[in-house]
Predict the 3D structure of the following.
Amino acid sequence: MFIGMWHKYPNPKCSHVISIDVLDRSVDPKTGIIRTERILGCKQKAPTWIVKLFGGSEDAFVREISFVDPSTQNATITSVNLSLSQFATCFERIQYTPLSSSRTNFHQTAEVQARMAVWRTAADGLERWLVQRFEQNAQLGKSAFTDVLRAMWEERQVQMAHS
């Protein structure tokens, strides 16, 4: 499952993710926990009123940090937007916990917050759009990851059949 996490992108179901840059990957010598930090480049069309009011473009960047514990098989991924973060943030947390040798629990949360108390109406609209976009992308991401895992499982089955 962990190898699949790092192969989730690029993926036709998540075509909004156009680049992935690994900034750092390290292993804690005491715990064995693998920490990976990446920047995801995304291209997403924002509503015209958001672009006019806040500026920006279709290009957006997200910082992702993952922690994988090989001893427990637990993984945690956190991400936060870098683009337009002075106006709003979307903090996402995904946890994968093994239930058995063939099942994994997936838990995902997101906290969206606009930072413009003066323009409450605009802030509310921005939050609504961010939540809607997050929900769409979360479904695409989950489906894409399932496809990656399925392909890896099928490839392994073929390899085992030939050995």
Notes: The chain is about 35% helix and 40% strand. The beta strands are 17-27, 34-43, 59-69, 74-81, 88-98, 104-114. The two ends are 22 Å apart (CA to CA). The CA atoms of residues 97 and 105 lie 5 Å apart.
